[in-house]
Design goal:
Elements: H1 15-22, H2 29-40, H3 47-79, H4 172-182, H5 186-201, H6 213-226, H7 239-251, H8 268-283, H9 286-302, H10 321-337, H11 345-358, H12 377-386, H13 393-401, H14 421-435, H15 437-454, E1 456-463, E2 469-474, E3 490-497, E4 500-507, H16 508-522, H17 524-527
Length: 557
């Protein structure tokens, strides 16, 4: 039975899911007091105890903020020494009044000019040809730090105290500014909105997406989170979609942290973990913290002593660059959350640089399972950048190797990277963004208009929250060999062969993957805060093997 035919989860969910969902409930004051009293007597590692502690902090906060200053003032008044008033005779001299000159009154200041805030509109429905990127302001060839953008970190927690968290470039106004600064366009954002609406239209009733349900749900959630969409009531159009996706992942997680549904090589686990870590970072829901921690434990334990990973997080001698890429991104997201309690997470974060160096070609490029070059070169560069090793010689050599890369559906074979161009472009686009300078400027002029042009648009296919009909859009890989399977039913897809369009066979699951990887590229402008610098994490590795192996990425089955 395919994952797309899974039944809707039963009413009685597991403990982690039910406890997480309680945070979205509107509770009366008396109900909150009752649950707090009951929870404080529960085991400290239970969700009820965590809920009780959180509520005590929230309910006592406003009271203490008022009472403590009053107590302090009263205390100061009580210790003030009483001074006796002494009578003094003051000689008073009476003088005749004198005429004083009239003081000229200054004219009143001119009225202040009213400042009218003009919000940045992110609702674009222009034609796909609407490509007019702004000149980016990267310092010439200055590498960009990969600190992810931060948004409304506690937006979805119901509390009498509403705290607005750290606002970064994923908020609506900041998205527009980031696109202007780094070369985005209104046409690109319109393309992203069509993709997000297509994903919304194709979400299954149980909250997952077609294909390998855990992996594709993780990818779809990464798209929404990159756009600043959370289950917050502020996210009117996509909030419910994100909530259902998160519910699916949490309900699909076993008590030990592994996911019930996975592909043969278990790409699903690091992809879903990546999504849970980002979801927790942007929401700070305690039950997501627990889910992310349980999932990260397996990635931490599965890292090889030399820093790499193999399929299924197995302890072997094989270091798979493609699989390592998703593990490293998950570890980075977990590290950036700041408060995840996972033993050895920092150690694994630092050691991962070694794993990529194992497969680095001194002349430039990264191989599949040993030193080499090819389409996975972007994986190695991006992950070393994310891990703070952007200035290492392996990164510099591979960026030079990737200078000849092109972004063209029609000529996707020109570099000879192999049969998975969309997967490779996902990494190369981000790597060049972090590299900055002329490399990014040149690449941005290639990839952005090409993705806008190649999106398949379905007109007036979905209603927005105001009832207005909106377009939706998706992508299919130009390569007939990018996917070896998938779920969700067979579909026809436009492919490119020897410069000509052909109609090939694909699956809805493959289309979800291609759409997610393409949309994430168009959101690269505001997924990260490029003004921050992160410390470098480097280590020495001595290996000497060469290969030119390529890999077909089958993570949708």
């Amino acid at each position: 039975m395919s994952d797309s035919n899974l039944p809707v989860p039963p009413v009685e969910h597991d403990r982690a899911y039910m406890e997480m969902m309680k945070l979205f409930e509107d509770l009366s004051f008396s109900e909150r007091i009752k649950r707090t009293i009951n929870g404080i007597n529960q085991p400290k590692d239970s969700g009820e105890y965590k809920f009780a502690v959180l509520q005590l902090q929230r309910m006592t906060g406003p009271f203490l903020a008022i009472v403590l200053p009053i107590i302090a003032v009263a205390f100061l008044l009580t210790i003030e020494t009483t001074q006796e008033f002494r009578s003094q005779v003051v000689a008073v001299e009476v003088i005749d009044p004198t005429d004083t000159p009239e003081i000229e009154e200054e004219p009143p200041p001119p009225p202040e000019e009213e400042f009218e805030f003009e919000p940045v509109d992110t609702e674009f429905d222009g034609p796909t040809e609407n490509f007019n990127p702004q000149e980016n302001t990267f310092a010439n060839n200055e590498p960009v730090s990969p600190k992810p953008a931060e948004i409304n970190s506690v937006a979805i927690i119901k509390s009498p105290i509403v705290m607005r968290g750290i606002v970064g470039s994923r908020s609506p106004g900041q998205r527009g500014r980031a696109m202007s600064e780094f070369g985005g366009s209104a046409g690109g954002e319109a393309t992203v909105m069509r993709a997000l609406r297509w994903l919304k239209a194709n979400q299954l009733p149980n909250g997952s997406w077609p294909g390998q349900s855990t992996a594709m749900t993780g990818m779809a959630l990464l798209c929404y989170l990159a756009h600043g969409e959370t289950p917050s009531p502020d996210c009117v159009e996509f909030g419910p979609t994100v909530e259902r996706g998160i519910r699916y992942l949490v309900d699909n997680q076993n008590e030990n942290g592994l996911f019930k549904s996975k592909d043969d090589n278990n790409y699903a686990h690091p992809i879903a973990t990546y999504a849970l870590c980002e979801a927790y970072t942007l929401t700070k829901v305690p039950m997501l913290k627990e889910a992310a921690e349980k999932a990260l434990v397996h990635i931490v334990r599965g890292q090889h002593p030399n820093g790499g990973w193999d399929y299924n997080m197995r302890q072997t001698e094989r270091d798979d660059t493609s699989y390592m890429g998703w593990c490293a991104q998950a570890v980075k997201a977990g590290h950036m959350a700041g408060d995840l309690e996972v033993p050895d997470l920092d150690k694994v974060y630092k050691n991962a640089v070694n794993g990529f160096k194992v497969n680095a070609n001194p002349s430039g490029g990264f191989g599949y399972t040993s030193r080499g070059a090819g389409g996975l070169s972007g994986v190695g560069v991006l992950c070393m950048q994310l891990l703070g090793a952007a200035r290492e010689p392996e990164v510099a050599a591979t960026l030079s190797y990737l200078d000849d890369a092109t972004f063209s559906f029609e000529k996707w074979k020109s570099k000879g990277f192999g049969a998975s161009p969309v997967y490779y472009w996902y990494y190369i686009t981000q790597a060049k963004f972090h590299a900055g300078g002329d490399r990014w400027t040149s690449w941005n002029k290639q990839f952005q208009p090409e993705l806008i042009k190649r999106q398949v648009v379905i007109k007036d296919a979905i209603a927005d929250p105001e009832g207005k009909m909106r377009d939706i859009g998706y992508w299919d890989s130009p390569s007939n060999g990018e996917h070896g399977g998938g779920g969700g039913g067979a579909v026809d897809a436009i492919r490119w062969e020897n410069g000509a369009q052909i109609v090939g066979k694909s699956t809805l699951g493959a289309r979800v993957q291609d759409t997610c990887l393409s949309a994430l590229q168009l959101m690269v402008y505001y997924r990260y805060l490029p003004t921050f610098k992160t410390p470098e994490v480097v280590a020495d590795v001595d290996v000497a093997v060469e290969d030119e192996d390529e890999v077909k990425i089958n993570i949708i089955r």
